[in-house]
Design a protein that fits this description.
- The protein is mostly helical.
- It has a single domain (about 40-355), classed as Orthogonal Bundle (ABC transporter involved in vitamin B12 uptake, BtuC), CATH 1.10.3470.
- The protein is about 75% helix and about 0% strand.
- It is built from 15 helices and 4 strands.
- It has helices at about 15, 25-40, 45-70, 80-95, 100-120, 125-145, 150, 175-195, 200-210, 210-215, 220-250, 260-270, 275-305, 310-330, 335-350; strands spanning about 160, 165, 170, 250.
- The strands form 2 sheets. It has a two-stranded antiparallel sheet. A two-stranded antiparallel sheet has the order 2-3.
- It is globular, with a radius of gyration of 22 Å.
């Protein structure tokens, strides 16, 4: 209905290759951008700092993980370690007096360096063996961060992050932190959207589908896997740095444990492998849904006059949350991004459903 094209024909390669060939998609993107720009004036300061900022940063991180998992088809169970490397590097660089912008880039470069060095060994294996190799990266980085005082200050120590300074100007407001996170998220989104249309993106997809077949047609699978690990690690490192400077304002080893790696993996799987919009939806679901379920259960029990203990209130939301994840994956195994695509495809033909046959 809204998406349907009636006799729209592309007569130039530029029209055929544009990012959003359907006009309704372009209108929707512009509308979402407008909402994103005025969001600090639509929502409270608490909602901006507690929900929108971490959602944007984690969406960028999920997009980086989706690059290696959804595009290149390589398992990565140690992505929180990559994020933590970028966070600690950026904080130490900023504390040493290096400008904030360079510190964040250094965080991304350090994550890239360690990620690529580790990938040289990890990419010699496939499947579950690769997953175990990346899990080893997580455990190694966890141990190093916790036990090397020069990095973390010691076991269970907290390293305070310097104030965020953009071009020498301190950004202390929640609105300023929001716009910094928004710009980074939009940059990563633009990169991922355009990656699909490049030779690199097509090569990564070929490697994901069958690396032996890709090698037959001249695609160097090891090289492109290495590029995917490098780009994904850089995005994760910068995202980790921004997560500290815009949200946590202090860094600890517990922020980048194996639990966080599983959380990032869940964002990509629930959102949809290889789906850009799925990363947005998956990050929102994993980050925001638990708190909303907690509030709903507490409000509903109060409305019904039920007396639920603290232990019950702590476990019922987790059960509902897990059931929702299973339900979504049963309805659509390809994630929330595919659900959106299904609705969009339905509206493309509605009410002429017989065109599907």
């Amino acid at each position: 209905m809204f998406y349907r094209q009636a006799g729209v024909y592309h007569t130039t390669y530029a029209n055929d290759r544009q990012l959003f060939p359907v006009p309704t998609d372009r209108y929707l993107v512009w509308a979402l951008l407008l909402v994103a720009l005025i969001a600090p004036f639509l929502f409270s300061s608490l909602a901006v700092s507690s929900y929108l900022v971490p959602w944007l940063v984690w969406t960028a991180a999920a997009l980086g993980l989706n690059l290696i998992l959804g595009f290149a088809g390589q398992f990565h169970f140690g992505y929180a370690a990559v994020i933590g490397i970028g966070a600690y590097t950026a904080v130490h660089a900023a504390r040493a007096g290096i400008p904030w912008e360079i510190s964040v880039i250094l965080g991304g470069c350090m994550s890239t360096l360690i990620g690529v060095v580790f990938a040289f060994a990890a990419l010699r294996v496939k499947g579950l063996y690769l997953a175990l190799s990346t899990l080893a990266l997580q455990f190694i980085v966890d141990w190093v961060i916790s036990h090397v005082d020069a990095i973390s200050g010691g076991v269970s120590a907290t390293l305070q992050a310097p104030p965020l300074k953009l071009l020498g100007q301190a950004i202390t407001s929640d609105t300023g932190a929001y716009y910094v996170a928004l710009v980074w998220c939009l940059l990563v989104t633009s990169f991922m959207l355009n990656l699909k249309r490049t030779g690199l993106g097509r090569a990564l997809v070929a490697v994901r589908e069958k690396d032996f077949a890709a090698a037959v047609i001249g695609v160097k699978s090891f090289y492109y896997k290495l590029v995917a690990f490098a780009a994904s690690s850089f995005i994760g490192g910068v995202s980790g740095a921004l997560l500290i400077f815009t949200f946590y304002h202090a860094v600890t080893a517990e922020q980048f444990s194996i639990r966080v790696s599983i959380q990032a993996l869940a964002m990509v799987i629930v959102g949809g492998l290889g789906s850009v919009i799925g990363s947005y939806l998956g990050a929102a679901f994993i980050l925001l849904m638990p708190s909303q379920i907690n509030a709903f259960i507490a409000g509903f029990s109060s409305l019904m006059g039920w007396s639920l203990g603290d232990e019950t209130l702590a476990h019922i939301p987790n059960v509902i949350y897990g059931a929702l994840i299973i339900g979504f994956l049963i309805v659509e195994p390809m994630g929330l991004g595919k659900l959106y695509a299904n609705v969009r495809n339905y509206l493309m033909l509605w009410p002429f459903g017989y065109h599907r046959k």
